[in-house]
Amino acid sequence: MQTSSKIHLPSVFQLLFSGLGLAVFLTSAISVLALGILSLLGNSLFGQETLPLFSLAWTAGISGVLLIPSTAYALMRLLHRPLPNWKLSNPLRTTNRAMLLWPVLVGLGMLISGSENLALWVLPPIQILILGLPLWWLVERGRAGLETGSPQRSWGILGFGLTITSTFTLVAEILAIVILGLLGTLWLSTQPEWMEEITRIGQRLAYAQMDPVIIERIITPFLRQPGVLFGILAFTSGIVPLLEELIKPLALWGFAGRKLTPAEGFVMGAMCGATFALFESLGMFLSAGSGEGWAILILGRTGTGILHTVTAAVMGWGLVSAWSERKYWSLGGSYLIAVSLHSLWNLFAMLSGFGILLTPEEPAASLPLAARLGMIAPVVLPVLALTLLAIFFGFNRRLRANAPTAAIPAAE
């Protein structure tokens, strides 16, 4: 006689990745924090040298804390306990109010980043708030008036993004770098003059003693080579967007057999993108600059957060449209849009950092094309960010009109 299993297999999987991730992140946070404190007590590292350890501890710690609800929901589901409804009564209003603190936090961070002692203890949690608040606000704006699913699903998507998606992305990009490195080595073996130049640059860098002025002087002529520039931009603006836009909505594939609406796909995709952006941005701040440089990096990562959230939301809509409505053109079109926007963003973000290609005494017409495009990047990137927001809000408005399933909370 057959007996039907009462075990909810998706919750088993959720408990595995959330519980293991929780253990790994919290253990790592405690270990790295202890290492940082011991380094300070032993006077082996000072100020800005220890900041990466404290930032990494905070990053691992907050990642672990964010996995607690996902772990708890999965465990209670498997134990057949009533699931709590852990959500705010009006999250959009809460995020709108919280965003009022954002410019204050940025200003405070600029002041603190210039002080070694304060930065060590206060800057990491401030950075987490600065990076996280806009992403939370964007997700709430995207799902306002739309069906959001159960809290277990929402926290599970976040947990999946912090553990599985981030790991897949890292492995995929490392593999891409290794493959390209092997191909590049094979090509260089046929170009002895390039091999000699790279060897010479490596020897000079070995004696640079990490001096940024000397390093810039050494690598600038190399970066001005068209082939080198093309290779860098082809990877960051071509291969990276193709990979990341495929992997970011990975959590949605666990719902492929369910009857979801495109609106739910849009909301779930936004959660995937925001989680990906948070984890990526926190990794960028393991070491921080100070003052204006720190603020520019914060603004840049905020813009990148908008990019990842919007493109993943569009991909989520495309995936569910293909599954539930057989609109495969929607999936192809959404992937094309997501990759194109991501490529443009990465292109101009990279070009904006190529200031070392500029030679003040050279007329603009004689500058490399990359340097000339880099001069307009500070204008292009904000325009792209506004375009992404317009796409995001436009999708939300259209989906609400076609399938109004939830009341829009008062925004205030």
Features:
412 residues; mainly alpha; 0% strand; disordered C terminus
What does this molecule look like?
This protein is 77% helix and 0% strand. It has a domain at 90-190 and 224-402. By secondary structure, the protein is mainly alpha-helical. The protein is globular and about 65 Å long. It has helices at residues 9-41, 47-78, 91-99, 102-113, 116-143, 151-188, 192-206, 212-223, 226-247, 262-284, 291-325, 328-352, 369-402. The chain is built from 13 helices and no strands.
Look at the helices and sheets and give the structural class: mainly alpha
Q: What gross morphology would you assign?
A: globular
Number of helices: 13
Q: SSE string, helix = H, strand = E?
A: HHHHHHHHHHHHH
Could you tell me the strand content as a percent range?
under 5%
Low-confidence stretches: 407-412
The first-to-last residue Cα distance is 59 Å
Number of strands: 0
